[in-house]
Design a protein that fits this description.
Blueprint: H1 26-47, E1 54-55, E2 58-59, H2 64-71, H3 92-102, H4 104-124, E3 130-140, E4 145-146, E5 152-153, E6 157-171, H5 175-241, H6 247-281, H7 308-318, H8 320-341, E7 346-358, E8 361-374, H9 382-449, H10 454-488
Antiparallel strand pairs: 1-2, 3-6, 4-5, 6-7, 7-8
Helix pairs in contact: 2-4, 3-5, 4-5, 5-6, 5-8, 5-10, 7-9, 8-9, 9-10
Length: 506
């Protein structure tokens, strides 16, 4: 933001203790006091936000907050809202809404966007003049002194001094417009960054929410495995009592049961950890527990039907972090013009109204108007190095943009094939779990009938336990892979793109 050349400043006017002075036109003195009071009231009126375009923090005449809202259509700014925690079961959509409202990272991104909107307002303020009011009231007494006529007097001297000053940069060879353009682009970048953080937050909620769902499912699977192992142990003991089984069968069944019990303890601990991770992702303390109500996962999911090239083009258009990198590059380009303008003239208009009243001295009231030109002829090569620094910053932003483009292409590529693999695993584990459950039932029946061995039973039970964990992992991987691809494409601004009935990508 350019510095205004305000010219010499005078002490202001305080009318509360205006002393009696020599006869002067009372109407004129009163008019000066009224003018100063009105001017001060106008300045206080503007600064207190009575003018149009109000925000919570005051006046916004340049509508920078409205500009920010236009840059993030469809997104809700959480600042100033009460983020209520759902009292009942927590669905995935409710978890996303809570995280977008209460997650500190998401709120920080929005706060930074508002901060940049204020920076744009500061840059825009360079188009309007700067007006200041200064005043003072002095009283000299307590001894003899020489007055303005050369006489030695001992009377008190009261002085009232006031000034209203205006300073306005008329032209600065692109410095002002360059700073405004840079601030505009940085606001665009901040808004895009907020949008990107929103999508990152949704992706984190997917991982935490379905991680907690998987943790609960693992506890149920481990409990079921422990119950089956206990049932097998009871059968082995019954067969030994009847003279059909052996002590070795009982010991093997006992070992399998103890292992299953230990696995259950571990699963419970992992589930509690996942619950804490979810609570923190939602912007709540880790000790706050939720009762989850996830959507059912289909036994099989449709295969992907989009072409990779189409997905790449979509990501290049929609990814907000890529848009932020482009805007940062544009801001760096505008800063080059700002750096060059530092070595060019600045033309300013200044105006002042002075009022001075002193005991035994004629009241002075006059105006000054002037035009000034400031031209830095030699700055010790500071301007040259400033331009060089701005050009280097542009090169840095261009390379950063290129890196973000590469990252986006890698996200789309990896996300596509990860989801393709997750879809295949989802279908494969459905059949795996079905056959493992049938195998476990058959092995138990054969063992009870005396035609099977305890080894067959334990092997079938281990296979069933592994199949259940594989199914849980497949469901978790499918949900996370869908979120990863939606994020890679720039779609993940809410829970809607992850509705189970929708295929992804579309």
């Amino acid at each position: 933001m350019p510095n205004f050349n305000q010219g010499p400043r005078r002490r202001g006017h305080d009318e509360y203790h205006t002393p009696p002075g020599p006869p002067s036109p009372p109407a004129r003195a009163r008019s000066h006091r009224i003018a100063l009071a009105v001017g001060l009231a106008l300045m206080l009126d503007v600064s207190s936000g009575v003018a149009g375009g109000e925000t919570e923090s005051g006046v916004d005449p340049f509508r920078t907050e409205n500009a920010l809202k236009r840059m993030v259509p469809g997104l809700t700014d959480p600042l100033g809202y009460d983020c209520a925690t759902p009292a009942r079961e927590l669905t995935f959509a409710a978890a996303v809404d809570l995280a977008l409202c209460a997650n500190p990272q998401a709120r920080t991104a929005w706060a930074q966007a508002h901060q940049q909107a204020a920076v744009l307002g500061q840059a825009d303020s360079a188009w309007v003049p700067q007006v200041t009011i200064d005043g003072s009231q002095q009283r000299q007494f307590g001894g003899e002194h020489v007055d303005n006529n050369g006489n030695t007097v001992s009377t008190a001297v009261n002085t009232t001094d006031a000034a209203v000053s205006l300073s306005w940069v008329i032209y600065d060879f692109g410095g002002r417009t360059g700073r405004i353009e840079s601030a505009h682009r940085l606001l665009d970048a901040a808004a895009s960054t907020a949008s990107s953080v929103v999508q990152q937050t949704v992706r984190s909620v997917v991982q935490a929410y379905y991680g907690a769902v998987a943790g609960d499912a693992s506890v149920e699977a481990a409990r079921s495995t422990a119950d089956i192992s206990k049932h097998s142990l009871e059968i082995a003991r019954a067969l030994q009592t009847g003279g059909v089984g052996t002590v070795g069968d009982v010991l093997q069944a006992q070992t399998a049961y103890e292992q299953a019990s230990l696995a259950l303890v571990q699963a419970v601990a992992a589930a509690r950890t996942a619950q804490g991770t979810l609570a923190v992702a939602l912007g709540r303390p880790a000790d706050l527990s939720f009762r989850l109500a996830p959507d059912p996962v289909p036994a099989e999911a449709p295969s992907l039907g989009s072409h990779m090239s189409a997905l790449m083009r979509e990501a290049m258009r929609q990814r907000p972090d890529l848009a932020a990198a482009r805007y940062q590059r544009d801001a760096a380009e505008a800063n080059i013009g700002v750096a060059r303008s530092a070595g060019l003239p600045i033309v300013s208009l200044s105006a002042q109204h002075h009022y001075t009243r002193q005991t035994d001295v004629q009241t002075q009231s006059y105006n000054e108007v002037g035009v000034s030109v400031t031209w830095p002829i030699f700055t010790g090569f500071n301007v040259n190095y400033g331009v060089r620094q701005a050009e280097s910053a542009l090169h840095v932003s261009e390379e950063n943009l290129r890196q973000v483009e590469l990252n986006v292409s890698q996200d789309v590529w990896g996300g596509y094939y990860n989801l393709e693999s997750a879809i295949e695993q989802l279908g494969g584990t459905t059949e795996l779990l079905r056959t493992a459950e049938e195998n476990e039932k058959v092995s138990i029946g054969r063992y009870q009938a005396g035609v099977g061995s305890i080894v067959d039973v334990l092997t079938a039970q281990a296979a069933l336990s592994a199949a259940r964990e594989a199914r849980i992992a497949a469901e978790l991987g499918w949900n996370v892979a869908r979120a990863q691809l939606a994020y890679a494409l720039g779609r993940l601004s809410s829970a809607a793109p992850l509705a189970v009935e929708q295929s992804l990508p579309q």
